[in-house]
Input
Amino acid sequence: MPNAEVEVLDCQAERLDWDGLSKAIESSEPSFVATSGFTANAYTCARTAEIAKAVDSEITTVVGGSHFSFTAEESLAQFPEIDYIVRGEGENTLVDLVKTLGADGRIADVKGLSFRANGKIVHNEDRPLITNLDSLPYPAYDLVEHNMNRYHFSMMAGRKAQYMILEGSRGCNHKCSFCTQWRYWKGVCRKKSPKRIADEIEHLNDAYGGVFLWLTDDNFEYESSAKGLWKELRNRKCRESVMLFFQARTDDVASNPELVGKLRDVGNYWVMLGVESNSDAKLKEFRKNVTPSDAYKAVKTLNDNGIFSHAMFVTGTRDDTEDSIRSQSRFSLDLGADLAIYTVLTPFPGTQYHRTALDNGWIEDFNYSHYDMAHAIMPTKTLSRDEVQRELYNCYKAFYGSYTKSISGIFSKKRLKRTMYRHMASQHVLKKLRDLI
Ligand code: B12
Ligand code: SF4
Output
């Protein structure tokens, strides 16, 4: 909609509190206020809509994203301040909604929309997915240009490296039981072409000085994507200044060491691996289709190529005990990754786990603001939620609490590793985690 006036308000970057948000909405006099959030931000989104309505009840409020898409019925019933929920892919549905309302058209014809009508909650039929992601315009980074100097990932790349995110694909071909993403994108993975991704990387670097670039792809597939991207980037100047971050599977990295090396040459400095567990039984329960030996090979491949290796773990499954979590903790130390992040199994709405946990009455905490993978939401068969929380802290303490590890991290040859360990030391990260117990 070339004639639509759009303003992006980033309250976190602009340090606006609720009152500041209210004043900003008042001064912009918008017709629509649209917001997005993860499960942990659900109430924040609802409060934003509430504030918009308090400023002017004529403002139309819209929310979107995976949480609201999976909880459309519940959210519309719970939050009268939300007028519309855009389910799934947002670009075309939002435009369709705005055009339809502007033309007094039939809301019932807007695919992918949920709303209230005559006291009932209505869910229009799903909107088909966009077939070619290259057809999308570049994200409107210019709308947040005034905030660019506030976007850093201090913990990872320091305050001097401009941090930006870009999207190379949507969805994943795997079907892990704890993951929202594959279901949200209907079990298919759509990719932008390597040329388009390289063009966006170049654009972010040239136009905005983007350095630390996080690809939002839930599963960057080296096997199918690395060669094309490498070919596109190898002759571009931006490859010398960018630091690319990918999320990947251990089996994919383990079986493609050459491609990993190639991408390192064009700026891939950081890879987050979904290791999840040392237990075959748990990996099976997660439907992850990887083995602990894939994790060893993947971490070694990254380390051999001088790429910062970041391993993710899940704790707190139903069968987890103090012993099994401690054994996982030892495995994580043995793996040799530069960074380990331990998460608590969280029953996000939309996951297979959510259904199972609800059916079995396992969920004790229904406060969505705690659904951030750091708070224990469910007990296990043998551990209370407090005990799961304590074991999570112990995992961190074992990994980062070691004086030798911290010192070797602070003086590591890998620049990203040095930055991260210095940041952790300065921010008292362990103490913050301890406060969660
Ligand atoms: C980048 C990222 C981050 C960055 C955020 C950087 C930033 N400020 O933008 C960082 C690292 C900070 C981060 C932190 C966290 N993250 Co995160 N993150 C992502 C990631 C990889 C990409 C997000 C993204 O930009 N996607 C690209 C956009 C285009 O896709 P999209 O958001 O889905 O939007 C599309 C549609 O959903 C829809 N849509 C979405 N919102 C709206 C709104 C409206 C009005 C409309 C019309 C449409 C619409 O339209 C869009 C285009 O089609 C996602 C996974 C993923 N691939 O999405 C996880 C993800 C969102 N993160 C997740 C989590 C859990 C977290 C943390 C809680 C982790 C933690 N413990 O710290 C924190 C929360 C931070 C916070 N308090 O807000 C989970 C959320 C699960 C859930 N249901 O809640 C995800 C899905 C990862 C996962 N696999 O589980 N994250
Ligand atoms: S956890 Fe990773 S591999 Fe599994 S479905 Fe989600 S994105 Fe795909």
Q: What stands out?
A: The chain has a mean pLDDT of 93. The pocket of iron/sulfur cluster (ligand 2) is lined by residues 172, 174-176, 179, 181-182, 218-219, 249, 274 (CB under 6 Å). DSSP finds 19 helices and 14 strands in the chain. The first helix runs from residue 18 to 28.
